[in-house]
């Protein structure tokens, strides 16, 4: 049984604007082009949506619906920088990540050993790390396939976490509106509505031959989706370039001894476990990451000659190297820290492509 997480940032561009300008909180905010230049809304927050503002709506129309709407010009470099941090968090949890867009991804955690394989706890960690490192909330859905995971992620927005368990699928699907099926737009929904079909239970009563007669090949997809069926795999073309683990602390650490204990007792054991499947990869260095109390970040690297991961793991019985990196890092910022991370840098070699095939 697969365990799929769908992660979707909440009103991403607008959320970044509210993060960077706290005065925007609780006010209707949208990112988009100017009304006098025939601009359109790219993203809007939930306060704006309450007024009927929607993505892809002409800005002029949005301003008519919500005269107090605060329109922010797009800052794509900032959005991309934030999205890159979030993607790295995804890949710290699993290699099986399919990035769908700048603010959305699927994660296959079926083989993930974190938290004894609990997809719910993995998703909770994901949400905590994203908000801690970026100030952005995400909604996540968990189920046995991509379709149901995506439906689940939209169920308790914003900042939601919803699980559709295998045993609940048959009871969940009949009441689901057909508009919730990805790919069912206004035209398809209208064609179904004129036939008296508005939810998946009603759609389940239609035969496969009828649906393919009405919609061609996409009729077969509708036949499967209304039953909660989706055979698509989570696909990724990314080649792993690093392996790392991080911890964000509820209370800032103040003393180096505390930090060393975290490295010894938490980070290194998890790093070794996470790196073990990559025993054939070659390593070009170690690094330690620190986020200080003022949210500034520093990373200290230690390069090594080309070495095999298997040999490094066999010799990584103590944290002397990382303690040295920690001493260097602590000279670069305040004494209090809120995050510690350790990891390996990997060589860009053909070994990595072969490794991906194991999944």
Sum this structure up briefly.
With 359 residues, this protein is of the alpha+beta class. Helices cover 39% and strands 23% of the residues.
Word description of this protein:
With 359 residues, the protein is an alpha+beta fold. It has 4 domains: 4-9 and 77-167, 2-Layer Sandwich (Alpha-Beta Plaits), CATH 3.30.70.270; 13-76, 3-Layer(aba) Sandwich (MutS, DNA mismatch repair protein, domain I); 172-224, DNA polymerase, domain 1 (Orthogonal Bundle); 242-356, DNA polymerase, Y-family, little finger domain (Dna Ligase, domain 1). The chain has helices at residues 12-20, 46-49, 59-65, 76-93, 119-134, 146-153, 169-172, 186-193, 200-204, 208-215, 217-225, 256-275, 309-315, 320-330, 350-356; strands at 4-9, 29-32, 41-44, 70-72, 97-101, 104-108, 138-143, 161-163, 242-253, 282-292, 297-308, 337-346. The strands form 3 sheets. A 5-stranded mixed beta sheet has the order 5-6-1-7-8. A 4-stranded antiparallel beta sheet has the order 9-12-10-11. A 3-stranded mixed beta sheet has the order 3-2-4. Helix 4 (76-93) runs antiparallel to helix 5 (119-134), helix 10 (208-215) packs across helix 11 and helix 12 crosses helix 14 (320-330). It comes from Oceanospirillum sediminis. Its main location: cytoplasm. Residues 4-185 form the UmuC domain.
């Amino acid at each position: 049984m697969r365990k799929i997480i769908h992660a979707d940032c909440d009103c991403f561009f607008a959320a970044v604007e509210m993060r960077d300008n706290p005065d925007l909180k609780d006010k209707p905010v949208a990112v988009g082009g100017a009304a006098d230049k025939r601009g359109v809304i790219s993203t809007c927050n939930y306060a704006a949506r309450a007024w009927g503002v929607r993505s892809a709506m002409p800005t002029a129309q949005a301003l008519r619906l919500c005269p107090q709407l605060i329109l922010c010009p797009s800052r794509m470099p900032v959005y991309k920088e934030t999205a890159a941090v979030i993607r790295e968090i995804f890949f710290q949890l699993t290699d099986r990540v399919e990035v769908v867009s700048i603010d959305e991804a699927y994660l296959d955690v079926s083989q993930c050993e974190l938290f004894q394989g609990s997809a719910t706890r993995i998703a909770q960690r994901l949400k905590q790390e994203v908000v801690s490192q970026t100030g952005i909330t995400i909604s996540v859905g968990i189920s046995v396939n991509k379709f149901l995971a995506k439906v689940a992620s939209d169920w308790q927005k914003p900042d939601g976490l919803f699980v559709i368990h295998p045993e609940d699928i048959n009871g969940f699907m009949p009441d689901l509106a057909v508009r919730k099926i990805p790919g069912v737009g206004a035209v398809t929904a209208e064609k179904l509505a004129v036939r008296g079909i508005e939810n998946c239970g009603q759609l389940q009563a239609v035969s496969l031959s009828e649906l393919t007669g009405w919609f061609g090949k996409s009729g077969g997809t509708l036949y499967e989706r209304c039953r909660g069926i989706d055979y698509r795999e989570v696909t990724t073309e990314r080649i792993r370039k690093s392996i790392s683990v991080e911890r964000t602390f509820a209370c800032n650490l103040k003393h180096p001894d505390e930090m060393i204990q975290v490295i010894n007792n938490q980070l290194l054991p998890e790093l070794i476990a996470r790196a073990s499947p990559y025993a054939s990869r070659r390593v070009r260095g170690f690094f330690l990451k620190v986020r200080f109390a003022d949210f500034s970040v520093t990373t200290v690297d230690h390069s090594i000659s080309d070495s095999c991961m298997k040999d490094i793991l066999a010799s990584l019985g103590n944290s002397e190297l990382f303690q040295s990196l920690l001493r260097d890092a602590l000279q670069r910022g305040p004494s209090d820290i809120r995050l510690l991370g350790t990891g390996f840098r990997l060589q860009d070699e053909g070994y990595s492509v072969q490794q991906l095939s194991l999944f």
